[in-house]
Amino acid sequence: MDYSPGLRGVIAGETEISTVGMEGTSLRYRGYDAIELTKTNTYEDVASLIIDDNLDGKLFRQSFSTHYKQLLEDIELVTLINRLKLNQHPMDVIRTAISYIGEADESNKLDAASKVAAIACLTIASYNQESSDKLDEEYVVASSLLPNNSTKQQLEALDDMLILYAEHGFNASTFAARVTASTRSDLISAIVSGVGTLKGELHGGANEAAVELINSFKTPSEAEEGVHKLLENKKKIMGFGHGVYKIQDPRSPIVKKWVDVLSNTEESINKFEIAKTIDSIMDSEKKLFPNVDFYGGLLLSELGFAVDVFTPIFVAGRSVGWSAHYFEQRTQDILIRPAAKYIGIEER
User: Fold this and answer.
1) Among 111, 160, 186, 293, which one carries the catalytic annotation?
2) Candidates 45, 242, 249, 325; catalytic one
3) Phi/psi at 176 (5° precision)
């Protein structure tokens, strides 16, 4: 039996949900180009497509709105979130908040998935200094994360980000969710498995590291000198290259465009110039392209989010992908149980 460390290149299952990195680039959700979807559809439409193969987000939008408003009125939940926020990382808070749901009604896939998304968004919004209780009719999910006074441009930018985060094949967190689903466990347990896996810095923390790197430099020239030193010292620069995409991460240009559009202060313009300087160096020195996390962290900063809620926002977007994979794995009803290569002592 062949051995592949980390299961790299191993086909571990079948899916109709997405294709990632074909021909070195491209991302498709059930046959639709995800990049084109950001131009013509909202996150709610894409969520419905991923969950139910229907590119009409009306039912997801209605269900999400209902759950979000009900959860806002759940005093016990709000109290729990506020208590946990005092001494726990936002990823731990969102994991516990999702567990609070218990077992969701899985007979209605869209409704169950929208409830998971709603409690994730509610938890993230609790970190905003301003209220986020008014939902925009067009960008419902994005508006639940941003303060009530946010502009349409800000809502559209975050909506695009959520679409690009929504699904990405058999990545580590999705595979963890599918393993849980394969045991015939419930949806919420599978989602919590995904959250716990995404918390690891090798999976969900690249956007945080990228912003921290950008913020460590005051000027583009300082960034140029600093990044060259990091490379000389064999330090890893987070936010570049990808395990599946070989030519380009197709999501990155969309995010970079929004950073350019929203950067309208001297400070934000300077940070964007620093980011572009780092990008240029990584291209010329290492032939590495930026993945969605590099400019993604900068976009989330520009939208006013604190660094420690970047990965929870990833949870909010990816929750529909996890849910879709959960339901697909349950339909296939195959227990995932790989073998291990023993490297210990043969006998004692």
Assistant:
1) 293
2) 242
3) -60, -40
Q: Where are the domains of the chain?
A: 17-200+308-332, 206-302
b/e burial code for range 275-311 (CB count within 10 A of at least 16 → b)? bbbbbebbeeeeebbbbbbbbbbbbbbbbebebebbb
Tell me which of 3.20.20.140, 1.10.580.10, 3.40.50.1440, 3.40.50.300 is the CATH number of domain 17-200+308-332: 1.10.580.10
User: Is there a catalytic annotation at residue 325?
Assistant: no
Residue 308: active-site member: no
Q: Are 49 and 28 in contact (CB under 8 A)?
A: no
pTM of the model: 0.95
- How many other β-carbons are positioned within 10 Å of the β-carbon of residue 58? 11
Residue pLDDT tens, the chain, 348 long: 688 888 888 889 999 999 998 877 899 999 999 999 999 999 999 999 999 999 999 999 999 999 999 999 999 999 999 999 999 999 999 999 999 999 888 999 999 999 999 999 999 999 999 999 999 999 999 999 999 999 999 999 999 999 999 999 999 999 999 999 999 999 999 999 999 999 988 888 888 889 999 999 999 999 999 999 999 999 988 889 887 888 899 999 999 999 999 999 999 999 999 999 999 999 999 999 999 999 999 999 999 999 999 999 999 999 999 999 999 999 999 999 999 999 999 888
The CATH number given to 206-302 is 1.10.230.10
Catalytic residue among 74, 89, 92, 203: 203
Q: Is 228 a catalytic residue?
A: no
